[in-house]
Amino acid sequence: MQNGNTVDPRAWTAASIDGPSAWYYPLPAVCWTAYEGARNEAKQAPVTAIRLPDIVRAECAAALGPVRAALESGRGFAIIAAPTGERLTAHDAQLLYWIVGQGLGRPFAQNVEGTLLYDVHDLGRDLSQGARFSVTNYESSFHTDNSFGADILDYVGLLCLQTAKTGGRSQVVSGFAILNELRARHPEVLATLRQPFHVDRRGGIRAGETPTVQFPVLQTNGDELLVRYLRYWIEAGHEKAGQPLRVVQGNALDTLDAILNRRDLRAEFVLKPGDMYFINNRWILHNRTAFEDYSELERRRHLVRLWLQVRRA
């Protein structure tokens, strides 16, 4: 996608994206101060009960301006590096992450139980039995989170507490680069992806709701893009709805997956314990490769997910 005569920086490829060192941002001092001020309260209450006063949240938001700029008008993802020289407990790391998250947006529930901080680790669950990828060690495939949700999920956060023994690399692709590819080479596929598909709600069903919801994979509005995609949920959704994917739909998804898996379009990295990774979920598709874990429970891969909506006037 282009803005006038300039290439949209959101439509990056592996060749045009800035270097990996630029993906990392220091933790703003004001966020650390807010964390220190909340530690005593967090000893008496759950982390998610800690709400920053408006003035403190505004200070954190201002200090996180470069991160927000990267998320909204830059590459669409950013990593806030673990604090140098600090050894935080898992509880304290989550509190700091929760503070940073409030500076970037408004946390909202990730399931019908209302979970705000969601543990991402392998519980040995089976996708065919209704599990989410987040509690398995499978490769997740390129996707956006909450593709079945009525609310638009702006940012996904992932706090790394423990890494896997092997694997579990983070990979990202720009939806704007994908859109450019489809417009240039596969306009008929783009037309199909703009039409509604059934998406499995994957256990996120409230009273009175159907087990599937219908959304297009790609929606554009001027220079804005909204991607809702996880292929497995689409296939399961069409099966539940009793409407098998039509040939043209299956071919469109095959083409999309082939583009998403091109090495020349993606960036990848490995998170370190303490790193806080944020994604613009509206147009960045992300993947986690399969992994092998340690046998000791205390060493197993463990990330904590946070969903955020942007505060709008």
Briefly say what this structure is:
By secondary structure, the chain is α+β, with helices and mostly antiparallel strands. About 30% of the residues lie in helices and about 25% in strands.
Question: Which helices and strands appear, and what pairs or packs with what?
Answer:
Layout: E1 2-3, E2 6-7, E3 24-25, H1 29-44, H2 54-63, H3 65-73, E4 77-80, H4 90-104, E5 106-107, E6 117-120, E7 155-162, E8 166-167, E9 170-174, H5 175-185, H6 187-193, E10 196-200, E11 212-216, E12 218-221, E13 224-227, H7 231-240, H8 247-260, E14 266-269, E15 276-280, E16 284-288, E17 291-292, E18 302-309
Parallel strand pairs: 3-4
Antiparallel strand pairs: 1-2, 4-15, 5-18, 6-18, 7-15, 7-18, 8-17, 9-14, 9-16, 10-11, 12-13
Can you describe what's shown?
- The protein is α+β, with helices and mostly antiparallel strands.
- The chain is 29% helix and 23% strand.
- The protein has helices at residues 29-44, 54-63, 65-73, 90-104, 175-185, 187-193, 231-240, 247-260; strands spanning 2-3, 6-7, 24-25, 77-80, 106-107, 117-120, 155-162, 166-167, 170-174, 196-200, 212-216, 218-221, 224-227, 266-269, 276-280, 284-288, 291-292, 302-309.
- Strands 3, 4, 5, 6, 7, 15 and 18 form a 7-stranded mixed beta sheet that branches. Strands 14-9-16 form a 3-stranded antiparallel beta sheet. It has a two-stranded antiparallel ribbon with strand order 1-2.
- It is globular.
- The protein starts with a strand and ends with a strand.
- 41% of the residues are buried.
